[in-house]
Amino acid sequence: MAGFFREVARRVFAQELKDSNLTSRDESDQYAPQYLLTPTGAKVNRIFLVGTLIEKEDIGTDSEYWRGRVSDPTGSFLVYAGQYQPEAAQFLAECELPAFVAVVGKTSTYTTDDGNVLTSIRPESIQPVDELTRDLWVLDTAKQTLERINAFEKQEEPNAKLAKEHYTTDSAFYRSMVQKALESLRENV
Amino acid sequence: MKQTAESIKDRFLKLGIDVPEEDIESRLDELITKFKVPSNEAQRSVTNYFLKKYSIPKNEFYARQAEPQLTKITDILENGQWANMKVKVIQLWENTHESISQVGLLGDETGIIKFTKWQNTELPDLEQGESYLLRNIVIDEYNGKFQVKLNRTSSVEKLAEAVDVAGGDFTPAARESELMNIADLKEDNQWATIRGKIVQLWENSHEAIEQAGLIGDETGVIKFTNWASSELPDMEEGKSYLLKNIVVNEWNGRFQVKLNRASSIEELDEDIEVGTSTFTYFGALVDIQTGSGLIKRCPECKRALVKGACAEHGKVKGEYDLRIKAVMDSGTSTQDALINRELTEELAGISLDSAIAMAADALDPGVVLDRLKHELVGRYYTVTGHKLDRYILVESIAPRVSLDGELLEEMLVDLGVE
Question: pTM value?
Answer without folding.
Answer: 0.59
